[in-house]
Specification:
With about 250 residues, the chain is α/β, with parallel strands linked by helices. It has one domain: Rossmann fold. The strands form 2 sheets. It has a 7-stranded mixed beta sheet. A two-stranded antiparallel ribbon has the order 7-8. Helix 4 links the parallel strand 2 and strand 3. It is globular and about 55 Å long. It starts with a helix and ends with a strand.
Length: about 250
């Protein structure tokens, strides 16, 4: 299903559970540096758009764009693979957990690079990372699919070309993360049983998830989950493979 059609279907209550976590937001803002004009690609409802600089948002889904707050940045309905802007129109381009929805990831990254004067900042996922308990034990098909969708970390240097310096850093997920992406509830397993929570996660719109949910429900009821993973409840953040990729032009 095309990304716009997918989010036109699942995105109607997206903003309720996909809110920016301030700790992740701080990492993204720092990576944007002193960029004053920013393009947010795959912007959706506007999470993580910095409020202290000028922003233009792009998303292919009209349903997602309609949920943007009234005071949010100006938005354009368009795809990452075909950005309707001239070369180097923005100081920086940002894209948050959206690459796996692009039909042409190489083309989308090339477009981001084309319209950025200074840098491209991405929050993405490393397909070489170990799967966390939800994927490993209950939904291994999520990992199999996502490893095909997310570019390997080594690919970003090639995507941004020889005139870019690429920096990559781990972004551990806080135990009380308020942005409801797939890994957000690693320390709150009961949340994955809530249909409203799952509605903000595109992975759960794939067919055949009922069996995994039944196993998780049974393991929580029996205490089996806590026997295996109770030690996680003692830590504040966990590295689940989310990565901050920042590509800086060597010559602006």
């Amino acid at each position: 299903m095309p990304t716009s059609a997918l989010y036109d279907t699942i995105g109607r209550e997206y903003a309720q559970h996909r809110r920016p976590d301030p700790r992740i937001a701080a990492r993204l803002t720092a990576a944007l540096g002193d960029a004053r004009l920013v393009l947010n690609v795959g912007a959706g409802t506007g999470s993580y758009e910095p409020s202290d600089r000028s922003v233009v948002a792009v998303d292919p889904s009209a349903v997602m764009l309609a949920q943007r707050p009234r005071e949010a940045a100006v938005a354009v309905q368009a795809r990452a693979e075909s950005l309707p802007f001239p070369d180097r129109a923005f100081d920086a381009v940002m894209a948050v957990l959206t690459l796996h929805h692009w039909a042409d990831r190489v083309g989308g990254l090339a477009e981001c690079t084309r319209v950025a004067r200074e840098r491209v900042v991405l929050l993405t996922w490393d397909p070489a990372a170990d799967a966390f308990w939800l994927v490993r034990e209950y939904f291994p098909e999520f990992g199999e699919t996502d490893r095909k969708l997310f570019p390997p970390i080594a690919a970003y240097a090639d995507a941004f070309g020889p005139d870019a310096r690429v920096e990559i850093a781990a972004v551990p997920v806080p135990r009380d993360c308020i942005d409801g992406f797939l890994g957000a509830y690693w320390a709150r397993p009961e949340a994955y049983l809530d249909p409203a929570v799952r509605n903000g996660m595109s992975s759960f719109k794939r067919p055949g998830v009922e069996a995994g949910l039944a196993r998780l429900r049974a393991d929580l009821a029996s205490g089996a989950w806590h026997a295996r993973h109770g030690h996680l409840l003692e830590i504040d953040a966990l590295d689940l493979g989310y990565r901050l990729v920042a590509a800086h032009r060597k010559h602006v």
